[in-house]
Design brief:
CATH class: Alpha Beta
Radius of gyration: 19 Å
Order of helices and strands: EEEHEHEHHEHEEEEHHEH
Number of helices: 8
Number of strands: 11
CATH topology: Spore Coat Polysaccharide Biosynthesis Protein SpsA, Chain A
Strand content: 15-25%
Distance between the termini: 45 Å
Strand order of the largest sheet: 5-4-1-6-10-7-11
CATH superfamily: Spore Coat Polysaccharide Biosynthesis Protein SpsA, Chain A
Largest sheet: 7 strands, mixed
CATH architecture: Alpha-Beta Complex
C-alpha cells in the first residue's frame, strides 16, 4: 500500500540509525562475460562505486556493508575500505548474501538478539525510536542511478510503517502465458515493478530471515511479506534501472549525461 505523507518531526532520532547493505555478489551472467557486472565502468568508474555514492548522497544513511563475491575482493577492497565501507563475502543466493550482510552489521552496533516480532508488534514511530530500533536499507549494487530524494523518501516511509520499498508502475502491456500456451492480458493498473533500496525495521527483517525455510524468493520484500508484514510502496524514478544486460549500460550512460547537462549553467537566450 501507499501510505500517507510523512511528518519528519515524528522521527528525529530514527534517521541516524539506518545502515545499508549493498548486494554485489552476483556474477551477472546475463550481462555477458565472466566478470561481475558491477565491476564494469560507467563514466570511468565502476558501477558499484556509483551505487555507494548514490546511497551516501542521502544523509540518513550511516554504515555501509557491501556483500561481494570472494573472487572480486581484490578488485574492490582498497577503494571500498578507503570509503569506510565494510566488505563481506556473499553466498550462493541473494538471501545468503543479505544474511551475510546482516551478520556483519552485528559487530557494528546492530545486535542480532532481538526477539521475533509479528505484524501486531509494529507500533508507532515514537515507540520504535524509544526502543532503540534500527533500520536496514538493502540496495542492488547494479542500480547506480537511484536519486538521493528517492532514498530519503523510502527511508522516511519505512520509519513510519516498518517496511517500505521503491517501486514504479508497470508501463508496458503484460501478457500471462498459461500451462497450455493460452495467453491472457493482465490489468497493469495494479502492477508495480519493485526497485531498491528496500528498507525495513531491523527486527522485522531479522524475523523474516529467521523464519525463512529455503523457498526461493526474488527480493527481501517477498520474504518480509511471507512473514505477515505489510509493505509500503513508494513511487520511485524510472531512471533507477538495474544494469542487467550490456545495453543497460548504454542507457545508464545516457541518463548520466542528461543529468550532467541539467547541472551545467545554461546560456542566456
Amino acid at each position: 500500500m501507499i501510505g500517507p505523507p510523512t511528518d519528519r518531526a515524528t522521527e528525529p532520532q530514527a534517521a541516524s540509525r539506518v545502515a545499508a547493505i549493498l548486494v554485489a555478489a552476483g556474477r551477472g551472467r546475463r550481462f555477458g562475460g565472466t566478470d561481475n557486472k558491477v565491476l564494469q565502468l560507467l563514466e570511468g568508474q565502476p558501477i558499484w562505486l556509483h551505487s555507494i555514492r548514490a546511497l551516501r548522497r542521502c544523509p540518513r544513511i550511516g554504515p555501509v556493508v557491501m556483500v561481494i563475491h570472494p573472487d572480486d575482493r581484490g578488485a574492490v577492497q582498497d577503494e571500498a575500505e578507503g570509503l569506510g565501507v565494510r566488505l563481506v563475502d556473499g553466498g550462493r543466493e541473494r538471501v545468503d548474501s543479505v544474511l551475510a550482510g546482516l551478520k556483519e552489521l552485528e559487530g557494528m552496533g546492530h545486535p542480532a538478539e532481538s526477539p521475533d516480532v509479528s505484524a501486531e508488534d509494529v507500533g508507532s514511530v515514537a515507540d520504535a525510536a524509544q526502543a532503540g530500533q534500527r533500520w536496514v536499507a538493502i540496495h542492488d549494487a547494479a542500480r547506480p542511478l537511484v536519486p538521493a530524494d528517492d532514498v530519503d523518501r523510502v527511508i522516511e516511509r519505512a520509519i513510519l510503517t516498518g517496511a517500505a520499498i521503491l517501486a514504479t508502475p508497470v508501463r508496458g502491456t503484460i501478457k500471462l502465458r498459461g500451462d497450455a500456451g493460452e495467453v491472457t492480458t493482465v490489468d497493469r493498473k495494479r502492477l508495480w515493478e519493485a526497485l531498491t533500496p528496500q528498507v525495513f525495521r531491523e527486527d522485522i527483517l531479522r524475523t523474516a530471515y529467521r523464519r525463512w525455510r529455503g523457498r526461493p524468493v526474488t527480493d527481501d520484500a517477498e520474504l518480509v511479506e511471507r512473514s505477515g508484514f505489510s509493505i509500503s510502496l513508494v513511487p520511485g524514478s524510472a531512471e533507477n534501472l538495474k544494469i542487467t544486460h550490456a545495453e543497460d549500460l548504454i542507457l545508464a550512460e545516457a541518463i548520466m549525461a542528461k543529468r550532467q547537462r541539467g547541472r551545467e549553467p545554461q546560456p542566456d537566450e
